[in-house]
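Bumping with the actual sequence this time:
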Amino acid sequence: MSPEAHVDLGCLRDNVREYHEKAPVPIRAHIKGHRTVEIARLQMAAGACGIAVTRVSGTSAYLDAGIGDVVVAWPWRDPALLGRFAALATRCRLSFHVDAAETIPLLGEAAARHGVTLGVRVQADAPYPMAIARLAAATPGLTLDGVTGYEPAGATRAHAERLVELAEGIRRAGLPCPVVALGGTTAADVVVPGITELGAGAYALRDAGLAALGWCALGSVAISVADPDLLEGCGQPWHPEPYVRRGGRLLPTHVCPLILRVAALRTSTGERWTVLNGADGGQG
């Protein structure tokens, strides 16, 4: 029998509604925190400006659901993979995170091959972000959408301010930079003037790791499992234990690796939501 995780539907809906209501800027829902069309629909209905993905496989299912604004939130450099993504741009607005100038001509070639326009979001941690921005703006088939930044250890106000400064420097160079996107669920607490978008994934289902940080209550974690083997390696640096036991169920410390191990989410109302976990030949 394929493994499933249990989802408290009422809790999930409350989490999505609350996060979007309190967010100071538009939210881009990163589907890595659930990988289901059903939750993506809830996020879009709550006001999400679009979704972020990392894999080609499964992305068409979100397009079939009517989602028309997609960001590839991983700096892929493989030409074949970029081409597969570019083919989807006939059905949606598609932008890419880029951390190296070498990726730009590959994206330009993919755009020309499929007759589409692709957006570029320069990663703030790239070695030469200004060079990437200039090249993107000058490459046919590409548009410079802006900049993006994510701190795995958790965003700080200083990180957000540096991201805004990078965007301002690009604009002073005479280049467009409409999007300044800050990444991370907890980054909602450090948004500063100049940030235009927040990319977040774990806020919908949440996890015990977020609760350990004091960001949310343990009772708001909407996902649980019964089998501890599914949670091996699901710890966080600040909470190494992979789960917290609550009411006879196990709450993951980190939701994203758990999602990669289950075939479906079973809701408290009995619905079965397929988890789109197909791999792309080991990439994406």
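The tokens above came from a reply further down the thread. The domain at 15-200 is CATH 3.20.20.10 (TIM Barrel).
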